[in-house]
Amino acid sequence: xxxxxxxxxxxxxxxxxxxxxxxxxxxxxxxxxxxxxxxxxxxxxxxxxxxxxxxxxxxxxxxxxxxxxxxxxxxxxxxxxxxxxxxxxxxxxxxxxxxxxxxxxxx
Length: 107
What we know:
Blueprint: H1 2-9, E1 11-13, E2 16-18, E3 28-33, H2 41-48, E4 53-54, E5 60-63, E6 70-79, E7 88-91, E8 94-100
Antiparallel strand pairs: 1-2, 3-6, 3-8, 4-6, 5-6, 7-8
């Protein structure tokens, strides 16, 4: 549990934030694009739950640079992921694109 917390939060040293990464690639960072900003995070997390375990409290909503205007992009952290995530998921009439690090989405 302490390991996961360190991977998620990083640490501060001499007034600088340090991100820690794991060589085992336990946590995968995922970017979800094309979701309307009105769409609930819960709906997206339920769909992603079919492929992985979403780290609780890890959802960050994307914003237009230098503003507080949300653009619909979501950033999440996942554990216990399937070998290969799909490129897209459909929620109602919306098709959302998925991008993941650790080679979890095909090229």
